[in-house]
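Regression check, thymidine-5'-diphosphate case 208:
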Amino acid sequence: MNGFFISIEGTDGSGKSTQIRKIEAYLQSKNHPFLLTREPGGTQIAERIRDLLLHPEYREMTAKTEMLLYAAARAQHVEELILPTLASGTSILTDRFVDSSIAYQAFGRELGDMVQVVNDIATGGKKPDLTIFLDLPPHLGIVRKQKEENHTMDRLELEANTFHEKVYEGFVALCQKEPDRVKRIDASQSVDAVFAEILRELDVLLMK
Ligand code: TYD
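Current build output:
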């Protein structure tokens, strides 16, 4: 049997990393075989592309270049790691996937429908079985990030508030478009309350 494909999404500072650590511990406690990965990244080539994408100095990167680089990293990630892992029966837990490109590039950068088209090429149409969207209005998320010690803002975090508002609208639109797959969880709650909601969704999937 194929593994489950789970992605975690959210705007910057929505508490994604904390929740991912908790999901990891939960799956381990259940002896559920899984691999934790991330986008952009997850393979050697995709991690090199990640360095290009997030470097704060490359302010001149155009929106289309950015979209294509995220998609290129994803194509490598899907073919080299995600599909073979799922086929071997191990589940995948990924920190971000295509929905981030829809939110950040289609909505944030206003590239629209072409982002889906390019990403369908990159993924061959592969979608997560479950996507958790940690919903935190962006003005709250950025404040959380700025408070983190030793945190250097990456190129996307340095964008203006209006950009982050558009990204957020993109995620909300995805939740409305695909409610069976994308589960919206209020990330302004306590860490434990957020995790309890994630577990409810996760258990429904693991029972399948
Ligand atoms: P990362 O350090 O992983 O940020 P976070 O901790 O918020 O997940 O950097 C990923 C950044 O790249 C983040 O700002 C979101 C952005 N991104 C896109 O714009 N498009 C994409 O397709 C992906 C996967 C990420």
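Comparison notes: The helical segments are 16-29, 44-54, 63-87, 98-108, 114-123, 138-147, 161-177, 191-206. The domain at 5-206 is CATH 3.40.50.300 (Rossmann fold). No diff flagged against the previous build.
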